[in-house]
Design brief:
Blueprint lengths: L1 H25 L2 E6 L9 E8 L5 E8 L9 E7 L2 E7 L11 E3 L4 E9 L5 E10 L8 E7 L2
Antiparallel strand pairs: 1-8, 2-7, 2-9, 3-6, 3-8, 4-5, 4-7
Length: about 150
């Protein structure tokens, strides 16, 4: 009887822990499209991220999930003050994220942009996090400013 009760408790706790991790991950991931109306040039999507006090840095990574198109790549840019980091997903349409890039700007406003190298539509996934050096995960808010 005690074994059945412990087993139910363990299963319930496991489900709650897993659900908690899924919410944590999904809360800082977004899928979007870019370039639907582009004809002659690349396109840009722009967002602002606010990192709460306790943040030491902001990090993000991107992956292009659309069908491969030669020469049409997705780039990620992070800007805060006078600092900027950029990375490109160099394999169009694969299932892999770029490595994380980070800007050590503390709490406050960060701008992130996804851009394309030429005209065409791409679908991308973005992971982003405000982080503390001690491993804490301060509150992270995002607002989209521009979609092209």
């Amino acid at each position: 009887m005690k074994f059945a009760s412990l087993r139910k408790t363990f299963i319930t706790a496991s489900i709650l822990v897993t659900a908690g991790h899924m919410d944590f991950t999904l809360a800082h991931s977004v899928s979007a499209s870019i370039g639907a109306g582009s004809v002659n040039t690349g396109s840009s999507d722009l967002a602002v991220v606010t990192c709460a006090p306790g943040t030491d840095y902001f990090e993000a990574q991107i992956r292009d999930v659309a069908s491969p198109v030669p020469g049409l790549l997705v780039n990620l840019h992070i800007v805060k003050g006078t600092q900027m980091k950029t990375i490109a997903d160099t394999v169009s349409g694969d299932a892999n994220y770029t490595p994380f890039i980070r800007v050590n700007g503390g709490p406050g406003i960060y701008y992130i942009a996804a851009t394309t190298t030429t005209a065409g539509t791409r679908v991308f996934d973005l992971n982003y996090h405000c982080q503390a050096n001690n491993g804490d995960h301060p509150e992270t808010d995002i607002a989209v400013l521009q979609v092209e």
